[in-house]
């Protein structure tokens, strides 16, 4: 477990959602069919679907549910992965490729319908995702993407410069793709709602319980914390950017970069109607992604790269707040009330990884900053797998745990990659 950051404590979401239920620590010896390490959306969606199907399950979380990226992200429900659908079919074959496309592109619909079904109050909206391009090559790529996705039967359309300005309130972009399936949520409310639903369905959820060891004891896996233990037939490690050394090599199989967000006070009057009037969410195409949305309280939340250390104030994010003022000059008078960050897990191939390093042990991580809808939508698939389902039926292929070379130098690598990406974006290549 990383001994750092309590950035979530300063996050806007924590203030808006209040303190929430405290799940008590694991104490004594317990036995379940499935034990899950990590109480983010991955762990809790799997736990909810397992409990709903009548399987006994325990979630063991080092802090409290939603403490990790799931409770402090940008709140964007974005369809898709880094690769286009045809590329995924070429990579994984028509059947598994199609299953992965359905999972990733229909993730927002799945998440929104689960929210409705469970009655989770989390400011959920479906006003679309905009992918915006500001320079020549990015515009060409975007047009090509729109054609390919339309060819696949997806509900996307190309916005020209003036339609993009009408949707965003800024004239920065030369074109954009609007995907009507996208939307947004208030993340901490979503993850807490899911924890409550899992608990009502019968899942045991433990907070303040860092799993310190995972041992094979004659056919069952035993997770130990400082005060208790859980024995289980099957285990899911769902720790994403907060992955530690619990399973050999797993921490080094992902790069845990920080993503940061700055938020304004609730904006009123003309400002509120001028900035993102469509109330879609947006991310920029390019090498260094900036993403933003106006939330249900009319705050602008803008996210992107920031310092590679925990932070607690928007003052430390002048790159984001300055950029926002360039997009909408009227923001020069606005107050930036919150700034925070959290860890996303990046993988070498830009895809999430499913591992099955020993019989009964699974790990799912590496969402590359696109995990809100995807991790939630993976819940039913994980539930089937953890009930003893076949790995071949899972939408992701199992891969070996492979530590990334020179992992220890990732903070330097991340700085170089950001610098390189910014140069490329500036040069339009
Ligand atoms: C600032 C930011 C903005 C983002 N914006 C978006 C966005 O707009 N849209 C989008 O799709 N994605 C976004 N993401 C990514 C998204 O939030 C993640 O992909 C997703 O939440 C991953 O969920 P998870 O459950 O796998 O991991 P997490 O939510 O990170 O949960 C992992 C949990 O594991 C726990 N843990 C770790 N080790 C142990 C241990 N040994 N014992 C017990 N518990 C342990 C941690 O305490 C943590 O709570 C963003 C991420 C960040 C940080």
Topology as H/E string? HHEHEEHHEHEHEEHEEEEEHEEEHEEEHH
β-strand amount: 15-25%
Total discrete domains:
2
CATH 2nd-level architecture of the largest domain: 3-Layer(bba) Sandwich
Biggest sheet statistics: 8 strands, mixed
What descriptive keywords fit this protein?
single chain, 429 residues, alpha/beta, FAD/NAD(P)-binding domain, D-Amino Acid Oxidase, Chain A, domain 2, 12 helices, 33% helix, binds flavin-adenine dinucleotide
What is the element layout, followed by pairings?
Blueprint: H1 7-10, H2 12-17, E1 28-37, H3 41-52, E2 57-60, E3 76-77, H4 85-105, H5 107-118, E4 129-133, H6 136-151, E5 156-159, H7 161-168, E6 175-179, E7 183-184, H8 187-200, E8 204-206, E9 213-217, E10 220-224, E11 228-237, E12 255-264, H9 269-274, E13 281-284, E14 291-294, E15 300-304, H10 318-327, E16 336-346, E17 353-358, E18 361-365, H11 372-386, H12 410-427
Parallel strand pairs: 1-2, 1-11, 2-8, 4-13, 11-18
Antiparallel strand pairs: 3-7, 4-6, 5-6, 9-10, 10-11, 12-15, 12-16, 13-14, 14-15, 17-18
Bound molecules: flavin-adenine dinucleotide.
């Amino acid at each position: 477990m990383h001994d750092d950051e309590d950035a979530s404590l300063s996050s806007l979401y924590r203030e808006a959602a209040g303190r929430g239920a405290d799940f008590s620590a694991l104490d004594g010896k317990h036995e379940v069919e499935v034990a899950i390490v990590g109480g983010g959306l991955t762990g809790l969606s799997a736990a909810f679907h397992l409990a709903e199907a009548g399987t006994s399950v325990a979630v063991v979380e080092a802090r409290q549910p939603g403490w990790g990226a799931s409770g402090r992200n940008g709140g964007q429900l974005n369809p898709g992965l880094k690769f286009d659908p045809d590329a995924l079919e070429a990579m994984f074959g028509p059947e598994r490729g199609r299953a992965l496309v359905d999972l990733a592109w229909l993730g927002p619909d799945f998440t929104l319908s689960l929210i409705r079904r469970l009655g989770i109050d989390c400011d959920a909206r479906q006003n679309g995702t905009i992918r915006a391009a500001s320079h020549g090559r990015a515009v060409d790529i975007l047009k090509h993407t729109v054609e390919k996705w339309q060819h696949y039967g997806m509900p996307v359309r190309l916005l020209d410069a003036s339609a993009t300005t009408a949707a965003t309130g800024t004239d920065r972009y030369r074109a954009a793709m609007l995907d009507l399936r996208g939307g947004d949520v208030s993340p901490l409310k979503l993850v807490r709602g899911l924890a409550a639903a899992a608990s009502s369905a019968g899942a045991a959820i433990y907070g303040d319980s860092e799993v310190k060891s995972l041992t094979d004891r004659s056919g069952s896996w035993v997770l130990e914390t400082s005060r208790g233990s859980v024995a289980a037939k099957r285990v899911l490690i769902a720790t994403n950017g907060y992955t530690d050394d619990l399973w050999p090599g797993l921490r080094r199989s992902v790069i845990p970069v920080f993503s940061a967000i700055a938020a304004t006070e609730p904006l009123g009057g003309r400002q509120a109607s001028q900035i993102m009037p469509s109330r879609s969410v947006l991310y920029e195409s390019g090498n260094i992604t900036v993403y933003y949305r106006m939330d249900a309280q009319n705050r602008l939340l803008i996210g992107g790269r920031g310092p590679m250390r925990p932070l607690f104030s928007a003052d430390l994010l002048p790159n984001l707040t300055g950029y926002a003022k360039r997009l909408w000059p009227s923001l020069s008078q606005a107050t930036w009330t919150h700034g925070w960050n959290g860890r996303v897990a990046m993988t070498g191939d830009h895809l999430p990884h499913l591992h099955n390093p020993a019989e009964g042990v699974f790990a799912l991580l590496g969402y590359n900053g696109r995990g809100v809808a995807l991790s939630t939508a993976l819940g039913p698939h994980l539930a089937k797998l953890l009930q003893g389902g076949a790995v071949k039926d899972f939408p992701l292929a199992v891969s070996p745990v492979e530590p990334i070379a020179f992992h220890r130098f990732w903070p330097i690598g991340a700085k170089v990659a950001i610098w390189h990406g910014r140069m490329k974006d500036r040069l339009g290549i």
